[in-house]
Amino acid sequence: MTSNSPLPVRPLRTNQPRFPRHHFSMRFSSTPRGARLARRLAGERLDAWGVPYGSDTHDTVTLVVAELSANAVRHGRVPGRDFRLRLSTEGTAIRVEVTDTRGERLPTPAEPASGDQEDGRGLLLVAALADHWGWYPCADGPGKTVWAVLGAGMP
Q1: What is the full DSSP assignment across 60-88?
Q2: Hey, how many other C-beta atoms are within 10 angstroms of the C-beta on 44?
Q3: pLDDT for 28-73, tens place per residue?
Q4: What strand order describes the sheet that includes 144-151?
Q5: Is the whole-model pTM more than 0.70?
Q6: What contacts 24+ positions apart, CB below 8 Å, involve 18-23?
């Protein structure tokens, strides 16, 4: 006796933790204080989602949030306009998005001019830590969104 029904599909098993779908979005002032607050609130949100303080994943994601937020303040600032942070989880991935209002200043990782220079390494760091990163222009107004996707099984 044969059956025309397909075999049941079993979910892929992995040793990495799986997240339910989570989403966080908030606007911050385009100031150094706003960037620090974005990092702090991202850290609190991650902890609430089950990514505990002090874990490698928590530290890496908050570092990416800090770098992208600092870039939005330094390179994407328009006086009187905020930047937006979005965090989301799905499966084993965490996505970070930072939107600013300067669409003409595109994110370009560049080698710093000298080893003593303290800036110019943010996007290089993001590229090294993230599984994928990129940017896209805002569809609903001026600006751009820089994003990074990080797997939960990160070192």
Answers
A1: HHHHHHHHHHHHHHHHS--TT--EEEEEE
A2: 13
A3: 999 999 999 999 999 999 999 999 999 999 999 999 999 999 999 9
A4: 19-28, 83-91, 93-100, 144-151, 132-137
A5: yes
A6: 18/91, 18/92, 19/49, 19/50, 19/89, 19/90, 19/91, 19/92, 19/93, 19/94, 19/152, 20/89, 21/88, 21/89, 21/90, 22/49, 22/87, 22/88, 22/89, 23/86, 23/87, 23/88, 23/89
Q: Which two tokens stand for residue 87?
A: 């965090």
What is the b/e burial string over 87-122, where b = at least 16 CB atoms within 10 angstroms of the residue's CB? bbbeebbbbbbbbbbbeeeebeeeeeeeeeeeeeeb
Distance, in Å, from the CA atom of 143 to the CA atom of 138, rounded to the nearest integer, reads: 5
Distance between CA atoms of 84 and 29, rounded to whole angstroms? 9
Q: Do the strands 93-100 and 144-151 form a parallel or antiparallel pair, or are they unpaired?
A: antiparallel
> Strand pairing partners for 133?
148
What percentage of the chain has pLDDT greater than the value 90?
A: 62
The CA distance from 147 to 51, in Å, is: 20
Question: What residue type is 64 in one-letter code?
Answer: V
Question: Tokens 């892929």 map to which residue?
Answer: 12
